[in-house]
Amino acid sequence: MPFSWFRIPRETSEKLKQCRGTDLSDAKFEQCVTQIVASHDGRVDRFRHVGQGRFSVAHIDWPDENAKRAITRDLDATEVDDSGRERGGNGPAAGRPG
Predict the structure, then answer these.
(1) pTM over 0.90
(2) Burial classification of residue 80, based on how many CB atoms lie within 10 Å of its CB (0-12 exposed, 13-18 middle, 19 or more buried)
(3) Which residues pair with 49 in a beta bridge?
(4) Which of 6, 33, 43, 76 could disulfide-link to 61, CB 3.0 to 4.6 Å?
């Protein structure tokens, strides 16, 4: 199964907001992301919480391009490389200068 790293904002996705409710813990965030990814037949391999709580980076396995697009949309995510920098971009992606 192909995989990508995704930078996921912790407070912008409507699906995440609905799932999390008032629970802003890392554990609830991970549970909700895992649930959303699984709804597209994907799997979360691991998380890194970065950016002083503004976002997290997740290593996600996805079955096909349609699922990848849906996961990206539902999580309001950006595909990044394994260091947290946007793929193909020059700007800062993980709270570090570009």
Answers:
(1) no
(2) buried
(3) 56
(4) 43
